[in-house]
Amino acid sequence: MPSPIAHGLVGLSVHVLASQDRAEIRDPWRIGVTVGAALIPDIDLLFRLVDGVNHHNNETHSFGFALLAAVTAAAAFRLARWKRPLVLGLVVGLAWASHVLLDLLNLDTHPPIGLMALWPFSDGYYKSPVLLFLDIGRTLDWTAVRHNSVSVAWECVILVPALLAAGRYRMRHLGRDVWREGPKASP
Predict the structure, then answer these.
(1) Which residues of the chain have pLDDT under 70?
(2) Could you list the residue range(s) of the whole structural domain that residue 30 is in?
(3) Does 187 reside within a domain?
């Protein structure tokens, strides 16, 4: 699995691309919701503490669960009267799906190999033949720490330019002053 840093960078990219104006792009709640949706599938790592069984890469790591998260989020945001609740629900689903996509593209060394990416339609485990990311060790020995540092550096080499490209694209479509404080520049 890629690191939380990788998932957070992609979640932030989804947020930037989905923002329609300066207020949305700078809204800490919207940022938190989107980045949180990109990170939360790994909550299944904690399930082992409850029953001692490895639940990682199961249902929460699926496009079906991403769809369920999108529908649930849209309903919750509508009830809470958030601005553009359906769009924000879709953003939550896309951020969740980004987690699944990144995990499909990484080196997996913890059985079961792969993800239940097509749950609930299939309970099979799927893995991409194209490996873009390294695995993240789950121990705190020096070898794992060194390996994880290299893995995170590699993720940043790939994903920071993607985030910068998303920001540049958004700047072009919202106007260059979107990142600055104060009123929009007059035409």
Answers:
(1) 176-187
(2) 4-179
(3) no
Chain segment 124-152, per-residue pLDDT in tens: 999 999 999 998 887 778 988 999 999 99
Dihedral, CA atoms, 79, 83, 84, 88, nearest 10 degrees?
Answer: -80
What sign does the dihedral 26-169-65-46 (CA atoms) show? negative
Identify the DSSP state of 126: B
In a domain, 184, yes or no: no
CA angle 139/96/91 to nearest 5° reads: 145
Q: Which residues have CB under 8 Å from 149's CB, separation 6+?
A: none
E strands, 30-146, are none
CA–CA distance, 41 with 28 (Å, rounded to integer): 21
Give strand ranges (E) for 30-172: none
pTM of the model as a whole: 0.88
Task: Give the number of domains in the chain.
Answer: 1
